[in-house]
Design goal:
There is one protein chain. It is built from 2 helices and 9 strands; from the N terminus they run αββββαβββββ. With about 150 residues, the chain is mainly beta. The longest helix has 6 residues.
Amino acid sequence: MSTLLNNISFRNSVRGYVKVSDGSMIILRAAIVDVIPLQISSPFGVEFNVNFIVGISVHPSEGALNEVKDKPILEPGKQVNEGWIELEIDDKVSAYEEVIYKDAKIGEYLIRLEIEPIMASKNTQFKMRQEPLYTLRWTPKISWHKIGEKT
């Protein structure tokens, strides 16, 4: 069990952001949870399955807060299918995390997960706590390269 928990060391993690057309800012964080080698020989060396999660934190503008001040709070577990407004992305910086994966058989690899935000939307029919409900569409970019020698 300790081998499974000690095969990854965290090298670098940088939060990204999205500034959207309603003046709000969305902070973005990527986290690698686990790395599993799938295939030892490929055109890219080892092939990896990288398990990850992404989280966002919304910092709404004053105007966005005013849009939902009299709207009902979204009930837990309820989904919203109507009322979405697509927002333009005015500025963005991708979030990324890098880990070093170590294995006695295959060596050491630097693995990088980058999350690029590509679309943003909000719903003003309901609110989450006091702010509008925002969502992002993003694309993962996963790459790796061998570092060091086999151990």
